[in-house]
Every structure is written in C-alpha cells, then in structure tokens.
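Methods — Computational structure assignment.
A single polypeptide chain was analysed. Its primary sequence is given first, followed by the predicted tertiary structure written as structure tokens.
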Amino acid sequence: MRLEKTRHCAHNVGRILPFLCVAFALAMPAQARDYLPSKLFAKQYTYNPANEVDVELVLAVDISQSMDTEEQEIQRAGYVSALTSQEFLDAIQVGPIGKIAITYMEWGGVDEHFVVADWTIVQDATSASHFASKISEAPLRQVQRTSIASALEKSVWMVQHNEYQGLRQVIDISGDGPNNQGGSVTEMRDRMVQAGVTINGLPLMMKSNKNTWQAMLNLDHYYEDCVIGGPGSFAIPVRSKEGFADAIRMKLVMEIAGISMPEPDNYFQKVAMREPVRCNLFD
C-alpha cells in the first residue's frame, strides 16, 4: 500500500513538474525575506487529526474602485479556473497529507473585508468544484479605498482563528494599486510575517500597457519591496487580461506544492539595478 502511494505521488509530481518549470521561467522573482516565525497570539483549538492539512491558504482579492466590472469578472473567472484545474489538484496530492484548507476573501479599505467562500478543505475535484462554485455565484462588490495593511491583518487573523492545523500558512494577496489607507504597509507586513505566515503577491498590471499610474509606479516592484514577506515569498505580476488565469494557476500550484523561486545564479548579473521603492509614498 505504501509503495502504491509513493508511486501515485511520484506520478503527480511528474505531471506538475513541467508546469512549474514554466512558472520559474515566466515569473518575476522577488528576493525572499527570512524571518523567524514568532506567533503574535496563540491559536486556540482542540487537536483533531481530521483538521490536519498541508497548507492553510487565504486568497485575499482586491475589489477597490480601480478594478472595473470587466476586470473583476476576469479575476473571478481566473480563480475559478485555477482552483478546478488538474495542475492544482495534482499539487495538492503531492503534499504528505493530501489536502488543504482554503478561504476566499475580498477586501478594500480599512475593515472592508468580505468572506466570499469560508474555510473549506479541498482534496479532490469534487471539493474543489464546490469551493469554486461559491466564488462564481457570489455577487460582485466594489469599494473605494485600498488598504493592503488591513487586508494582511485580517488574513492572518483568519489563519490564527480557524480550526485547521496546517504545516504551512500562506496569504495570497492580489491588488492593482498601492496601500493608501490603514497605516504603514511594511510595518504591518513585518508584524504579520512574525506571526509565522508567508505572504505572496499577485500585482495586477493589466492597464500597464497604457499611460496610467500603474505603469509609472511599477506595481510589481512595489509588491516585491513592500508587500510580500516570509521564507520563500514571491510575486507574480499579471500584465494582461489574457494571462490572468495562467498566472493564478501558476501561483497556486507553487504555493500548494511548497515550491520557492530559484535563487539567482551567480554566473548571471541583472541588466540594471533599480532603486528601492518608497513604500510609504501612499500610506
């Protein structure tokens, strides 16, 4: 039985390995920050082996006013497609437990958090489809402000107060603009990383081919310097509406499988260095 399980895991690894190779080639790696996990508050629960999972994952999705209806629909469809993809399901099976706990939260300004799909264990196509259906059927919302700081704080609170015990805790935050409410995003980022989570980013730059503030800001650099954090953290920018679903699927597979971006090769040098982003510019 153990040999059969080993062969099954090896088969799943073989299926997602080519996909991960594409991820490494296309993604924009950010330098991972090494923080020592130190819980801000103890998680209160009664141990239940049925609640053990490989990953506790919060999908924190931007619904600020800068996201028009078409972009919100593309965003929703991208998550639904990724969550029901075979690559995502195979990545889950690679883990030692073979299941994850996941929730989908939309966010805007301070204290504007809407749980669209509450914590659910996903371990197969049926449970993944059930979770994705909650996302696709929920009405669209739109709020005015963008508080990444508040969204991070709420996401970690959700991790610390659920009933699951994950080997890893990951916050997957997407957005199309900088933090403009709720205090310092870097200070909040650092506090939340000290709670033991890894924060990955999905900067949405679908308007960056036009003369917009997104293009001038270099939102991908902002996410790298100011938002993501924790061991193995990374950001994958979305530069077109057509590439949205692929970027989300790539990111979810890497997060679930516990794959980090490769370290920079010492034999290669960056074409040009850049100045660090002023993270407090909009706080």
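Note: The longest helix spans residues 2-26.
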